[in-house]
Amino acid sequence: MKWLERLAAVAAKEVRQLARDRITIGLIVGIPAIQLLLYGYAINFDVRGVQTVVLDQARSSLSRRLVGDLGVTQVLGGIRQARTDAELHELMRQGDANIAIVIPADVERRIAQGDRAALQILVDGSQPVLENVAAGLASLPFLRRPGRPAAARPVEIMVAYNPERRTAVQIVPALCGVILTMTMMVFTSTAIVRERERGNLELLITTPVSTAELMAGKLLPYVGIGLIQTTLILALGYWLFGVAIQGSLIELYLGALLFIAASLSMGLLISTVAQTQFQAIQMSLVMVLPSILMSGFMFPFEGMPKAAQWIAQVLPLTHFNEIIRGIVLRGASLADMRFELGKLSVILILMLTFAMARFRKRLD
Amino acid sequence: MSVAITARDLARRFGAKWAVAGIDLDVPRAQIYGFLGPNGSGKSTTIRMLCGLLVPTRGTVTVLGHPAPKESEVVRRKLGYMTQRFSLWEDLTVRENLEFMCRVYGLGRAAIRERIADRMRRYDLEGIAAQRAGTLSGGQRQRLALGAATLHDPELLLLDEPTNAVDPQSRRDFWESLFELVGRGTTILVSTHYMDEAERCHRLAILDAGRVAAEGEPKDLARDIDAVVVEIGEIDFAAARRSLAGVGAVRSIAQLGNRLRVLLPHGTAEPARLIRAALADGNPGARVELVGASLEDVFVAATRLRGEAARPERAA
Ligand SMILES: Nc1ncnc2c1ncn2[C@@H]1O[C@H](COP(=O)(O)OP(=O)(O)O)[C@@H](O)[C@H]1O
Ligand SMILES: [Mg+2]
Q1: How far off is chain A from B180, nearest CA to CA, in Å?
Q2: Domain A50-160 sits in which CATH superfamily?
Q3: Using an 8 Å Cβ cutoff, are A340 and A323 in contact?
Q4: How far apart are CA B266 and CA B246, in angstroms?
Q5: What's the pLDDT tens digit per position in A192-249?
Q6: Helix, strand or coil for residue B133?
Q7: Contact at 8 Å (CB) between A286 and A256?
Q8: Which atom of ligand 1 is nearest to the CA of B161?
Q9: B154: domain range?
Q10: To 5 degrees, how large is the angle CA B92–CA A232–CA A222?
Q11: Which atom of ligand 1 is nearest to the CA of B15?
């Protein structure tokens, strides 16, 4: 078992060096925590409490009920009444209101005949999300069904706009994959390139350590770090945002393990190309950015052009996103996720084979 | 088998440049074999080819009976290598570095304890055992590197400029350690650009521009030098240099204290009289005498006199 002893020696050395590198230790914990807080709290795709001004020219019971209904949705907050058109525009220009709703004097006749727009909604175009809000308001059922304004129950509006913490629920599982992609690839690629840069590799490769022992020994500690990060993200997601795991925790970890291995092997491949740590980080970024943009983390996967969808197949994150969303949100099992697991395995095996073939115990 | 390393027509090219341009080597066992050569003469490249770290562009190498790089993996267990640049881990302590190297060479627990204790004592590392390698002085680093390279009792030690940036006393101690290792049967190949170190080797190859310019025992090299050495004293140096610059046969002039040392090609007829005649104008009272060659003269002759046109050395 000499090989195991050598592998253990390399792994123990890596852990020891890591433990002395305070900044890296900080990053291992800090990156997931900060990203999760940032995405979880700051980036909120839910829209609530939009400052609104209403110009009610009809002043009828119907128009008053409309304004009341709008207030209940919670999408619009702090609804103010403007007395004149000029006052409405003044409020918009000053930024005190982001949405303006004009109820024309003949609103009842417009709703009844349905030939002209019943309401006019003005949106502050400088804030992109608000257009969606306006579009949503325009399609509210009570405006489309003339003669039955009473059907406009606030509940229906809430379903469309205010499912509790919807962003966090989507973000937490997906963020797990994004953070692992970032840290795993950068950590492994720099871990090996650092030894090359500092001249340690020239000594290391003249010892009996084999390529496989060296790589496994270098990677093993990062598998552990990846699992720690996964745990951290899921725990914070649960405590801070109440994202519970619907599926099996063990299966989730098994899926994460495969994804971590695939990301590490990608970092390994980078390390066989890069000569300096700076190059290694640049190359990792080249992989991380498409992962974030194309894996379905940012934009819906189905909405991307076919070519982009094909490219995304090479990215481990694309498949892991499916797996973790399935297990965490839909309570899926690994068996349900076998195609994704298969694709991840293929990526892992290909990357490892390439990396092993490229890494020589030589300097040229 | 009495030969540790054999190389035939060994060559290595980087791009268009031949770093090693075809050298033959026979390194005897249990001796110190020196590579003497200026920077860029191909010392490191040759040593790396011996380790199997670089693949030769041409030629054959056999190290401890195994052809390189094909069987380098086997040889690596019997070989210790001290790289030109310090290559242990600066963020590990002296002891941790030694422990790691022991484990990588597959030593057992008991052996690890015994070897580390021995190397610490032998190379005076006990006082700095818990110190990070990155904080060590040049001499301490070198002792640690030698200790690490010898943990597995290698048959062959390859040392690439081990005494670079090390103070004279540490260099002396280091060479004592080398002779002690050789006394126990280790073969050592060491590269250097210090003359005094080259003089202490059993055998020596003078490398120049990727070729072996001279090879042999230091004493023999000095005796068989392909040049005559003339020493000149009691002169005005500036005037003498001017006069000698016009003498076609003069290949090199170097000042040593208050004397000038002049190299002329082997077979120059009456070199002393030639020099005296040249100095007659500016320095009629000069003392001129033929002297025995030093290793430095051999080095200069080997690296600068190879049949080129007369180009007097102007450096002081
Ligand atoms: N990896 C390399 N790539 C390109 N040129 C190299 C490389 N290694 C060495 N050389 C060149 O080969 C020549 C010999 O270098 P080296 O063997 O390091 O000399 P020495 O060790 O005697 O100083 C030098 O000109 C050097 O620039
Ligand atoms: Mg060198």
Answers
A1: 24
A2: abc type-2 transporter like domain (3.40.1710.10)
A3: yes
A4: 19
A5: 999 999 999 999 999 999 999 999 999 999 999 999 999 999 999 888 888 888 889 9
A6: helix
A7: no
A8: 21
A9: 3-217
A10: 35
A11: 4
